[in-house]
Amino acid sequence: MENTEQGKAEKAFKNFGKRLDDFMVEVNEASDHLQKEFKSRFEELKESAEELKKQAKDKERWKEVEVSLKKAGEQLNNAFKAAFKKKEGQ
């Protein structure tokens, strides 16, 4: 009877070991996939940073954009005031 119990324990450990090996393979595959995805995202971020850096160098252009946006904001503000302004005498 002792041999039977020992055989069951060995079988359980073998089964556990096989499942652990399968799990490690899955973890390694997932790790490789994530590593590739992170590398891809990192490259995208680097490209975006370079583009922003190039655009930031053109300060005069951004100053013009800033002035235009301020004017547009003021005009939009005036339009809202005019649209929602109560009529005199009401």
Topology:
Layout: H1 2-57, H2 59-84
What does this entry look like structurally?
Helix content is 91%, strand content 0%. The protein has one domain. It is mainly alpha-helical and 90 residues long. The chain has two helices and no strands.
What attributes does this structure have?
90 residues; mainly alpha; 2 helices; elongated
Share of helix, binned:
over 70%
Number of strands: 0
Shape: elongated
Report the sheet-strand fraction: under 5%
> What radius of gyration results from the CA coordinates?
34 Å
> How many structural domains are formed by the residues?
1
Poorly predicted runs = none
Secondary structure class reads mainly alpha
**N- to C-terminal distance:** 102 Å
Mean pLDDT: 82
Q: Report the total helices.
A: 2
Largest sheet: none
The secondary-structure element order is: HH
What is this structure, in a nutshell?
The protein has 2 helices and no strands. By secondary structure, the protein is mostly helical.
